[in-house]
Amino acid sequence: MIGAGLSGLTATWQLRSAGVDVALAEARERFGGRVLTLDEGSADCDMGPSWFWPGQPLIARLLDHFKIRYHDQYVDGAVLFQQHDGRIERIRQASPMVGSLRIQGGVNRLCSVIIAEIDESCILPGHELIRLESNGDTVMAELVGPCETIRVEANRVVLAIPPRLVAGLVFEPELPAETLQILAAIPTWMAGHAKFFAIYDQPFWRQQGLCGSVISQRGPLAEIHDASPNSDSHYSLLGFSGLDPPSRAAMGQTDFEDQALKQLDDLFGDHASRPTGVHFQDWSQEKFTASQLDLEPLTFHPGYGLNLQPGKPWNGQLKIISSETSFGNGGLIEGALEAALDFARAITGLDMPLVDNPND
Ligand SMILES: Cc1cc2nc3c(=O)[nH]c(=O)nc-3n(C[C@H](O)[C@H](O)[C@H](O)COP(=O)(O)OP(=O)(O)OC[C@H]3O[C@@H](n4cnc5c(N)ncnc54)[C@H](O)[C@@H]3O)c2cc1C
After folding, report:
1. Is the shortest distance between the CB of 280 and ligand 1 below 6 Å?
2. Is the CB of 11 under 6 A from ligand 1?
């Protein structure tokens, strides 16, 4: 298994639970991939995914299994609209996040409990897959580590990494050009985006009758929401950058953060320019998430799903299971779980996930 995001972690855990011999290699030194919670245990800043939604059964099932609590997104109060020229108005519209749910403690909690289920000795962080070679019977994976390059032989390889990154790997024999084109054409959800967090000791926007949600034509934050953990000591606002990756890179992180705080000050008053902490995460700069093609951020959620038939000898030896391969919830946390569990079910023939039903 290559890639220790939610899809690779879930598939490894479930396959090993069913007795399948599988090892997991990850390029980064940390696990979780696009899931990244900073200040865990206090402000719980989810720099990657923040929300899931009712009607997504897999995540709800796993959270119940691990007894991880979740809560409603805070949506009480008015939404602000900030125009190009800086004018701000309260609009008669519910927050776009109505109905969405947040994991108490941050999304990383789900990754952490899954990692705890996997035998440490079969996880290899800090090793980047660069090349795959098939001799017809087995596959050799070439992994570049901090000190040396290692080669691992296996009956099959599962790539729990975004399809666009798969297209950049070296395959011997080569994958058909048409297959590579299909993979490269699948955008990695949110890979071109950046997220900003400002942490406070008071929810001053709530005290003004605002829910924290803002739609802005002015920026640098295009969309802002309340991101407070379920606590009475920390509160926070998160914002998605409205600038594209090249403009963000030209501006630099310090200027971006200064301008974001100035915008929050304009929107919510001077308390907003005095956070107790800030975080900024630009996913377009992360080579294990974004490719060059992702520097054009998406403005809509594309139709996802991939059922690749890569041709001989790769058929049966190669499987891609990142979230983007899910037909039902592609690009989302639920899609990562769906892809992982569908694969584990196909390999083992068992009903997945292999966890107790909390209602039994
Ligand atoms: C800013 C942002 C906001 C989001 N908001 C939401 C949200 O609110 N709700 C929601 O449902 N979803 C959201 N998403 C999407 C969600 O995060 C993803 O769908 C999900 O985390 C994908 O999991 P994955 O395991 O399929 O892929 P990834 O998390 O991308 O995992 C892939 C793993 O493979 C590793 N890897 C890559 N290349 C190699 C290589 N060559 N060798 C070895 N390892 C490699 C990576 O380091 C990574 O750990 C958001 C994403 C971002 C970035």
Report:
1. no
2. no
For CATH 3.50.50.60, the residue range(s) in the chain are 1-35+107-189+298-360
| C-alpha span between 307 and 321 (Å, rounded) | 10
Please provide the CATH number assigned to the domain covering 1-35+107-189+298-360. 3.50.50.60
**Cα(300) to centroid(ligand 1), Å:** 18
Numbered ranges of CATH 3.90.660.10 in the chain: 40-48+71-104+192-285
Q: What 3-state class would DSSP assign to 131?
A: strand
Please write the tens of the pLDDT for every residue from 294-325. 998 788 999 999 988 888 889 889 999 999 99
**290 CA → ligand 1 middle, Å:** 10
Q: What is the pTM of this model?
A: 0.97
Which residue type is seen at 207? Q
Output phi, psi for 194, to 5 deg.
Answer: -140, 145
How many angstroms is it from 217 CA to the middle of ligand 1? 28
Asked if the 40-48+71-104+192-285 domain carries CATH number 3.30.1660.10, the reply is: no
* Pocket lining: 332 vs ligand 1, CB cutoff 6 Å: yes
Mutate to test the pocket of ligand 1, among 7, 12, 34, 343 (most ligand atoms within 8 A of CB): 34
Residue 349's CB is within 10 A of a number of other CB atoms, namely: 7
d(Cα 287, Cα 264) in Å, to the nearest integer? 30
SS3 317: coil
Does the pLDDT at position 72 exceed 90?
yes
